[in-house]
TrEMBL record:
The keyword Transcription applies. Residues 9-66 form the HTH lysR-type domain. PROSITE patterns: HTH_LYSR. It comes from Candidatus Pantoea formicae. Belongs to the LysR transcriptional regulatory family. This is LysR family transcriptional regulator. Keywords: DNA-binding, Transcription, Transcription regulation. Pfam families: HTH_1, LysR_substrate.
Amino acid sequence: MSQGFPSLPPLNGLKVFEAVTRHLNFRLAAEELGVTQGAVAQQIRGLESSLGLKLFERLPRTLALTGAGAGYATSVRQAFELIDEATRALRPEPNHLTLSVTPTFASRWMLPRLPAFTQTWPDIDLRVLASERLVQFHHEGVDLAVRYGRPPFGAGLDATLLFSQSVLAVVSPLLLAKLGNPQKAENFLRYALLHDGHHLWPAFLSFMFPSATLHHQHHLRFNQTALALEAAINGQGIALTSPHFVQNDLASGRLVPAFAQQMAVDAGWYLVSPQRLKEHATVLAVREWLIAQIK
């Protein structure tokens, strides 16, 4: 008679361990699992005790996997993915996909392309969540996310570059005709600067006017690029944006470049997803569609 798996540690401890390896933080793992921080710490201590070795180094502000812990984390994650795949195969779900994107990416890039998406993938039930923060994929049921910044975005996450950030200044043609060419510093000072959450104006001013120190008086501040762009379309001032977010506005003449030059930034827009042994067909399809749209 077979004995089963005599050396298998408690599965609950392994589930907690897998969550902690992604966050490297007991508090965040506890939030994801819906338990207390103390319960997470207790499970990890119990697991280390049953294995007879340390899985984590406790550092002042974070945790680090030991060599043994890192190897074990990879194997445990693969084992959970196999169980997850087997369970999905038993209960095939309809083609739901949840995509988390920033509000600006949602309104300025995703919305204009949704008709093409539904035409290409009529069977996929797409749910778009607009949020500035990087979601907890497993806990919030998110399959893919689009985020601005520089990788890595977190442990156990893959990041694929969609497009590098280059910064274009845009203005309404009516305001341009009224206030004059902003390439001239004396004209430029008449314009309001429309700020967003990326705070790129200081760097852009140094880029455009390297030999001048401009004491600009007029500022309007928004927490999202999409709002700054709406203000620019309405003739409120000059906004900074990725050219990818204003393609339609430039084509229709609602906005025009305030300066011919664009400023390159060491950051980009990335497609982020949890590392998986085998990607779900729906996720693969949407990932390929997003990348094809950029190209």
